């Protein structure tokens, strides 16, 4: 019987260690080369993407119709109608949002007498938002037989056919200054509701010359709007004693005039 002897070197032959080290070096070199090329291409690809994004952004914002004005929303209006606000705002339809002069729009809307404060902002992607704070009437001012609404800043902002029930009236001459009206407005705004209900009208002849005409027929010399809270407190106590006049212009030294 013939026995075949396997060659112990075939199939399990070991390579020379020097060759193995050379192979490992070649593989490491190839990996380094690949990494270098990848780093270069990564920066190239990133730069190209940034350029594409920048160009797309410029086109979208300045040239595309996507970010243009398609609607204008108004919030906070009550005395004014939306049509009045939009007519004053004059927001150009189809204009690019980024090109809008928000300050100019704000100035135009603020020119409406009934507007106390206004904020205008871009409502991305295709709108404009106008937020209003309207003036609140604290008195009806009688000037030349006509009644105008006045806020606490003394601004006249609407016309009444007749003074609203329960609203204090201010009687003034046609030449009265805005500062004097503003002072009268601050006096009225400082009155507690219980005291305001007893006032028929407020007279103002000039700065520091405010008077209250009470429903009882008495006259209150108020003076300026300084210390109005203290004056109101003093007057409330004095009214318990009927008199023809009450002088609280110096609240620390009130004076009453007998009927």
What does this entry look like structurally?
The chain is of the alpha/beta class and 259 residues long. It has 2 domains: 71-134, Ubiquitin-like (UB roll) (Roll); 139-257, Rossmann fold (3-Layer(aba) Sandwich). It has 6 helices and 12 strands. The chain has a 9-stranded mixed β-sheet with strand order 6-5-4-7-8-9-10-11-12, covered by helices on one side. A 3-stranded mixed β-sheet has the order 1-3-2. A hairpin with a 3-residue loop joins strand 2 (115-123) and strand 3. It is elongated.
Q: What is the topology, as strand order, of the major beta sheet?
A: 6-5-4-7-8-9-10-11-12
> How does CATH name the architecture of the largest domain?
3-Layer(aba) Sandwich
**Cα-based radius of gyration, to the nearest Å:** 41 Å
CATH class of the largest domain: Alpha Beta
Q: State the helix count.
A: 6
Q: How many runs of DSSP E, i.e. beta strands?
A: 12
CATH superfamily of the largest domain: Cell division protein FtsQ/DivIB
């Amino acid at each position: 019987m013939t026995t075949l002897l396997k060659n112990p070197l075939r199939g399990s032959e070991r390579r020379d260690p020097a060759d193995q080290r050379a192979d490992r070096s070649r593989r490491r070199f190839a990996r380094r080369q690949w990494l270098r090329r990848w780093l270069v291409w990564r920066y190239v690809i990133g730069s190209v993407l940034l350029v594409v994004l920048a160009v797309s952004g410029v086109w979208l914002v300045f040239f595309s119709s996507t970010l243009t004005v398609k609607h204008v929303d108004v919030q906070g209006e009550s005395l004014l109608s939306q049509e009045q606000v939009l007519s004053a705002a004059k927001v150009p339809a189809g204009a690019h949002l980024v090109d809008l002069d928000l300050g100019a729009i704000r100035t135009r809307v603020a020119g409406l007498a009934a507007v106390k404060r206004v904020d205008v902002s871009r409502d991305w992607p295709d709108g404009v938002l106008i937020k209003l704070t309207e003036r609140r009437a604290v008195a009806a001012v009688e000037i030349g037989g006509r009644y105008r609404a006045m806020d606490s800043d003394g601004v006249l902002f609407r016309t009444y056919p007749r003074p609203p029930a329960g609203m204090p009236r201010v009687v003034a001459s046609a030449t009265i200054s805005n500062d004097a009206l503003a002072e009268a407005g601050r006096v009225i705004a400082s009155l507690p509701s219980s005291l305001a209900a007893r006032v028929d009208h407020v007279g103002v002849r000039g700065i520091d010359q405010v008077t209250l005409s009470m429903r009882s027929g008495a006259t209150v010399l108020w003076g300026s709007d300084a210390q109005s809270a203290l004056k109101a407190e003093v007057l409330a106590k004095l009214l318990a004693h009927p008199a023809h006049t009450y002088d609280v212009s110096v609240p620390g030294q009130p004076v009453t005039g007998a009927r």
